[in-house]
Design brief:
This protein has twelve helices and 20 strands. It has about 425 residues and is α/β, with parallel strands linked by helices. Bound molecules: guanosine-5'-diphosphate, 6-O-phosphoryl inosine monophosphate and magnesium ion (MG).
Length: about 425
């Protein structure tokens, strides 16, 4: 069976967790392939609301194997806490596999993240402070520690102590609190003991499942505009969030990939710093935030809100090769009398439909807006395309046309049943 990939096409928080949960109705394995616990993926089942950070969003479906792939940076203490929390709620976490090749995040990475941000001034990224950037930097510097060493504390301990001492030197140079290495090692050791049975060679298990004809869905974190290569660099995260990242981050060869699902919010949000051409600072922006409950699932920060940016989303869908769009949060637009879509950028008097690489240009963008009439009625009960008011259908058609893809799913609320195939 081929592999499908699902990624965010904006600045994250598009509703990927919800979509993964819905799509895993008929999937055998869900694989996270990049990022870490900077992600916050919400799944609502009945009246329960779960937020996942490292555990794949297929965990609530019985019998679905959940893989944390080699491309991630994993905080063992945070993962242990998350898994215990899920187990306490009655779900089986024994189907979780952690790649032995995944990189580990330790307390010193988190402190370094905070330190980098504190000294960055106007270059502050507004990270989630989970140590993501420093851990990926260590990976590239080839001094990272991998999950395989969780299974051998005698190998893990000296590496951990060496790296921690190195960071402590840095902290003392900056006059910030040193890490208590002994105390921290105790926490790491405990987490290692909990996680060790879950550590395995996921590249083999994924490829064996493929051979057996199992259906695999890869779960992206963040979104294309936060991609280290394609996003609004340097205001990005430190991994490849675009669909290509699934091949390297899971160990799956490109010929196995079938569909690229792109989750796309009916408007745009961003959390953290960096350019955001369609950002709204008026009542409409506040309305999107309140109605859409746009507050970070990981950090609780209010998300910046704006109109749908078709220039940025088109770039994302092109790079991701999106052939199936899942539009989420259509219901949030229900009460607007008219709704804008950004169809082009004006930069220094020049009109373009191309997403610029230059941050200075992105910051100078004046969005060229096209206004569409709203529908001003509730869509959250819609169960099929024809249930939607005509103006909502037209809005969706225009979104799809502008990003040059086709809509496969529409989501009109956070619950599983508020989703329909088109
Ligand atoms: P993710 O990071 O892409 O998984 O998205 P988040 O979970 O961070 O944020 C999406 C939020 O929107 C969550 O609170 C979801 O429960 C909620 N959500 C998802 N789809 C819809 C939808 O169609 N309508 C509404 N109103 N909320 C939705
Ligand atoms: P999900 O998977 C939204 C943002 C941060 C910051 C930048 C870098 O829930 O969509 P990092 O901690 O990764 O070094 O921060 O990326 N960011 C996200 N924004 N959703 C996410 O994940 C994000 N993960 C990171 O706010 O701007
Ligand atoms: Mg999120």
């Amino acid at each position: 069976m081929p592999v499908d990939i699902l990624v965010g096409t904006q600045w994250g928080d598009e509703g990927k967790g919800k979509l993964i949960d819905v799509l895993t109705r008929d999937v055998d394995m869900v694989v996270r392939f990049q990022g870490g616990n900077n992600a916050g993926h919400t799944v609502e089942i009945g009246s329960e609301r779960y937020v996942l950070h490292l555990v794949p969003s297929g965990i609530f479906r019985k019998g679905v194997r959940c893989v944390i792939g080699n491309g991630l940076v994993v905080d063992p203490v945070a993962l242990t806490e998350e898994m215990k929390g899920i187990a306490e709620k009655g779900f089986d976490v024994s189907a979780i596999e952690l790649s032995n090749r995944a990189q580990l995040i330790f307390e010193y990475h988190k402190r370094a993240d905070v330190l980098n941000e504190a000294g960055a001034g106007s270059k502050k990224i507004g990270t989630t402070k989970r140590g993501i950037g420093p851990a990926y930097a260590d990976k590239m510097h080839r001094c990272g520690i991998r999950a395989i060493d969780l299974t051998a504390p005698e190998r893990l301990e000296p590496q951990f102590r060496t790296e921690a001492a190195k960071y402590n030197k840095l902290f003392s140079e900056h006059g910030i609190a040193q890490l208590d290495i002994d105390a921290e090692w105790e926490r790491v050791k405990e987490a290692a003991a909990y996680l060790a049975p879950r550590v395995c060679d996921t590249v083999y298990s994924i490829n064996a499942a493929l051979k057996e004809g199992k259906k695999i869905l890869c779960e992206g974190a963040q979104g294309a505009l936060l991609d280290i290569d394609h996003g609004t660099y340097p205001f990005v995260t430190s991994s490849n969030t675009t669909s290509g990242g699934a091949c390297t981050g899971a160990g799956i060869a490109p010929q196995h990939i079938r569909d690229s699902w792109g989750v796309i919010k009916a408007y745009t949000t961003r959390v953290g710093e960096g350019p955001f051409p369609t950002e709204l600072f008026d009542e409409a922006g506040e309305q999107l935030r309140q109605v859409g409950r746009e507050f970070g699932a990981t950090t609780g920060r209010p998300r910046r809100c704006g109109w749908f940016d078709a220039v940025a989303a088109h770039y994302a869908c092109m790079v991701d090769g999106i052939n199936k769009l899942a539009v989420t949060k259509l219901d949030v637009l229900d009460s607007f009398e008219k709704i804008a879509i950004c169809v082009a950028y004006e930069i220094d008097g020049r009109i373009t439909k191309e997403f610029p690489a230059s941050i200075a240009e992105l910051q100078a963008v004046k969005p060229v807006l096209e206004w569409l009439p709203g529908w001003q009625c509730e869509t959250s009960g819609a169960t099929c395309w024809n249930d939607l008011p005509e103006n909502a259908r037209n809005y969706l058609k225009r979104m799809a046309e502008l990003v040059d893809s086709s809509i496969a799913v529409v989501s009109v609320g956070p619950r599983r049943d508020q989703t329909f195939m088109v």
